[in-house]
Amino acid sequence: MVFPDYREGRLYAEDVPVDEIAEEVKTPVYCYSATALRQNYLSYAEQFEAGNSLICFAVKANSNQAVIRALGKMGAGADVVSEGELRRALLAGIPASRIVYSGVAKTPDEMRFALQQDIHQFNVESEPEMELLNEVALSEGKQAPIAFRINPDIDARTHEKISTGKASNKFGIPWTRAHEAYASAAELPGIKVQGIDMHIGSQLTQLEPFEAAFRCLADLTTELRGLGHNISVLDIGGGLGIDYADGNQLPPAITTYATLANNILGHLDCQIIVEPGRSLVGNVGILISRVIYIKEGERDRFLIIDAGMNDLLRPSMYDAFHEIVPCELRGGEPVSYQVVGPICETGDTFARNRLLPPLLGGDLVAIKNAGAYGAVMASTYNTRPLVPEVMVEGSELTVIRPRRVYDELIGLDTPDGVPELVIQTAENKHRNS
Ligand SMILES: *Cc1c(COP(=O)(O)O)cnc(C)c1O
Fold first, then answer.
1. 237: Cβ below 6 Å to ligand 1?
2. 103 alpha carbon to ligand 1 midpoint, in Å?
3. 285-296 vs 29-33, strand pairing mode
4. Best CA proximity match to 92, nearest among 67, 118, 116
């Protein structure tokens, strides 16, 4: 299935015309395809067999409960990076036994909560974190199952803001220190070593960095086993890129990537965990937006749409390219537009000098490949209500996050204070006594 696709010049999300979604839910709105989501998951599941593998969806890419639940029903686990994400995954029905907890710095409270749920694995990113986790686990009367996230010092050849596997990045334990870290962990009664974890970056389009990382994992497995450590889980992280139609190199197919992992790691008799985010959800989402009007500048023609950087941050944060298409094909010579949002920031720009068919105020456009790192990064900047989300399946349209009303958003503040919430600082206690 192609999502979204044109039928007689009208853009459809599965069997639902996009203009009907805009009519029903108003714009801007994210729309996901349940069928495309399942297709992506199956591409992974066909290669990584249940039983000796676990596909842990990286929840930070798209944490809507409906998305997590759809994947969970098919057998997916979850890779979470905060207590909030862990709670979401559990509430969406993912059993704790299929949840791994990654992230640079987990707080003691977060560790405690995760230990109480009996999650499958903590991916530990530093020795101080290991020591803290040991203490919290002991205080809970538990042993924390861990893998160390090893930083293999590999250049993922991706955008610098989403590269995580170089020695200069803040993530993981340098591979040169791996032996020491595992030796220290073996001494800690609250820690149970079970594996090794890596995640070298996001939106990777080449196989070579993955190959280097997988080989590093295989070598380290043999070395650490030789030193007497139990290595039964290999977490290969996520990071496989998607085709943003930006003219850059096309990413390898999921099957190619998975075959490589199985070839290099398959013989080690470990459970293989893979943590895909973008490659599961990126191409299953569009952001639907309406043109407010067209403004002819001195030099440029601005296409001002009702979605802003607060709804989709990737273009301003990562210089990301997103394909933008009209929801109705009417023909006409393409025109060059600066596609911008209404936010008071110059960075609120979706595309520069983009050739599009001529558009008019009131027309609808779809920003493609917005299913990953889209709605999850949305904010209410400029006091704009949080962007809503819908899911389509066949001709069925379900609102999975309704549009909020202004009163709700503004009502979060308590301008006069709440008497029960007046906090007695040491200073005013002293003054009042
Ligand atoms: C972000 C992240 C992922 C998912 O990355 P994608 O590029 O979206 O596949 C997986 N694992 C960890 C530890 C992450 O931080």
1. yes
2. 10
3. antiparallel
4. 67
Which residue, chain included where needed, has tokens 């709605």? 375
Pocket test for ligand 1, best of 44, 62, 157, 202 (most atoms within 8 A of CB): 202
Token pair in block for residue 399:
């609102």
Question: Cβ(202) to ligand 1 under 6 A?
Answer: yes
State in Å: Cα 160 to ligand 1 middle. Answer: 15
Q: Which of 31, 56, 327, 344 is catalytic?
A: 344
**205 alpha carbon to ligand 1 midpoint, in Å?**
14
Q: What number does the ligand 1 atom closest to the CA of 280 have? A: 9
User: Which of ligand 1's atoms lies nearest the C-alpha of 61?
Assistant: 8
Task: Evaluate whether 57 touches 77 at the Cβ level (below 8 Å).
Answer: yes
Structural domains of the chain in order of their starting residue, each with its CATH number: 5-30+283-410 (2.40.37.10), 34-280 (3.20.20.10)
Q: Is 112 in the pocket of ligand 1 (CB under 6 A)?
A: no
Structure tokens at 229: 């450590």
Parallel, antiparallel, or unpaired: how do β-strands 5-7 and 10-13 relate?
A: antiparallel
Ligand 1, closest atom to CA 240? 9
- E strand residue ranges, 14-52: 16-17, 29-33
Please report the beta strands in 2-116, taking only residues with DSSP state E, as ranges in sequence order: 5-7, 10-13, 16-17, 29-33, 53-58, 77-80, 99-101
Q: What are the tokens at 137?
A: 């686990």
What does R_g of the chain's alpha carbons equal in angstroms? Answer: 24
- Structure tokens, 4: 């979204």
- Tens-binned pLDDT, residue by residue, of the chain (433 aa): 899 999 999 999 999 999 999 999 999 999 999 999 999 999 999 999 878 999 999 999 999 999 999 999 999 999 999 999 999 999 999 999 999 999 999 999 999 999 999 999 999 999 999 999 999 999 999 999 999 999 988 877 777 766 666 666 777 899 889 999 999 999 999 999 999 999 999 999 999 999 999 999 999 999 999 999 999 999 999 999 999 999 989 999 999 999 999 999 999 999 999 999 999 999 999 999 999 999 998 899 999 999 999 999 999 999 999 999 999 999 899 999 999 999 999 899 999 999 999 999 999 999 999 999 999 999 999 999 999 999 999 999 999 999 999 999 999 998 888 777 777 787 777 776 6
C-alpha 282 – ligand 1 centre gap (Å): 12
The answer to whether 270 is a known catalytic residue is no
Q: What are the angstrom distances between the C-alpha of 127 and each of 123, 131, 165, 391?
A: 12, 6, 17, 42
